[in-house]
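User: Can you recover a sequence for this backbone? Please restate the input before giving your answer.

Assistant: Of course. Working from this structure:
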């Protein structure tokens, strides 16, 4: 497990890598993404979506991402392709 407390140099190195990794886009939260995630959670209250799932759905929709590296069936319910299952 990578923790800043136990391995501060490794954690710092990992964070620097993330900031410069080719093919990786960091998306920061916004009020709009929060509101969309909240709306999804309320709309699909018959599903067992977590708020984290709904934030992921909102981000993926905003970036027009169709595939997720997951086996979580909730992504399939929302029309995404779950690559691990």
């Amino acid at each position: 497990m990578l923790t800043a407390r136990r391995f501060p140099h490794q954690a710092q190195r990992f964070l620097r890598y993330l900031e410069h990794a080719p093919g990786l886009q960091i998306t920061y939260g916004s009020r709009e993404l929060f509101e969309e995630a909240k709306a999804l959670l309320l709309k699909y209250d018959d599903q067992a979506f977590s708020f984290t799932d709904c934030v992921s759905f909102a981000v993926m929709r905003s970036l027009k991402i169709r595939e997720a590296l997951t086996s979580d069936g909730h992504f399939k319910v929302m029309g995404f392709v779950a690559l691990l299952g």
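That completes the design. The radius of gyration is 16 Å.
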